[in-house]
Amino acid sequence: MTWHILGAGSLGSLWAARLARAGLPVRLILRNRQRLEAYRQAGGLTLIEAGQAQRFAIPAELPQAHAPIHRLLLACKAYDAQQAVASIARRLAPGAELLLLQNGLGSQDAVARDLPAQRCLFVSSTEGAFRPADFQVVFAGQGQNWLGDPHDPQPPAWLSELQHAGITHQWSPDILARLWRKLALNCAINPLTVLYDCRNGELAGHSVEVASLCSELVALLQGCGQAAAAEHLHEDVLRVIHATAANYSSMHQDVAQGRRTELSYLLGYACAAARRQQLHLPQLEQLQQRLIKHLRERGLPLD
Ligand code: NAP
Predict the structure, then answer these.
(1) Ligand 1 centroid vs 228 CA: distance in angstroms?
(2) Are residues 84 and 141 in the same domain?
(3) Could you give the angle at the alpha carbon of 109 between the alpha carbons of 106 and 112, nearest 5°?
(4) 183 and 249 share a domain?
(5) Alpha carbon distance 266, 292 (integer Å)
(6) Which of 73, 14, 12, 62 is nearest to 34 (CA)?
(7) Which of 75, 162, 181, 277 has the most CB atoms around its CB within 10 Å?
(8) Rounded to an integer, what distance in angstroms lies between the CA atom of residue 144 and that of residue 270?
(9) CA distance linking residue 53 with residue 272, whole number of Å
(10) pLDDT tens across 23-64, in order?
(11) Which helix (H) or strand (E) holds 194?
(12) Active-site residue flag, 77
């Protein structure tokens, strides 16, 4: 079974290179002829791991190629997910499986709604990767990939292929709890690092604000039926702030580099969920307003 990878960015390239290295059939789907030509010029995908570079001449194609797709890793940003899937939707075989690698919440449901005849697996990843150049990826942080299907607790048989490729993973019977927890951690840390223009560790100096955000996030998770994801949230936030003290958060990096953030799928999703549940969470609301103002002042997209 061929692994089609849609989105040859940081994580998509990291998965593609490891699958190819294990001898598994992989094909990249690139957005247009220019990207395909640039990829051909590059001669393949280069994975840089522990300072060692290795190039993989993985075949690549356009969305409008004809071969049916049975397994797809969707590795674009949350705000691109629906449009990217639409570009290959007619190629998806009935019963095809998609792995949705997007951060936050909201994009996965939107994609799954568009594809009633396919199985959508949600992935929550703590691996880290970045692109020093086009079609090159640096594996920057070991981590874990949790996979799950909110509608079917049965794991697929091909998880052993991930094992074979050295992609650390675990089947999660409650993937929504994982994604909610990660979203809550993100809401407690990332927006403040943008507003204070600081590394994660410096939030230790804003402990009262972090604590009050955490208590609202706990109320939100409980109100959304995610009580398990709310347990010991504040302790976990403090642990992450400490463990990643020297890092800039992904949202901070996006803003610093003038890129669109995934705000609508993170803090924006949390605030919308609170309104749906008629929860009054003033700290979260205010945080969203401050962040939107900050993005507007820098001419960045507000969603
Ligand atoms: P990225 O490096 O920006 O890669 C996204 C890729 O998607 C780009 O290569 C882009 O193509 C491609 N793409 C977008 N729309 C497309 C379309 N319609 N057709 C074909 N390709 C399309 O993003 P990333 O860092 O891998 O992040 C992917 C997701 O994983 C995000 O939700 C992120 O938050 C999450 N995540 C990332 C990391 C990490 O360390 N990077 C860690 C955990 C979670 P172009 O190159 O042509 O623009």
Answers:
(1) 29
(2) yes
(3) 150
(4) yes
(5) 13
(6) 62
(7) 75
(8) 24
(9) 43
(10) 999 999 999 999 999 999 999 999 999 999 999 999 999 999
(11) helix 175-195
(12) no
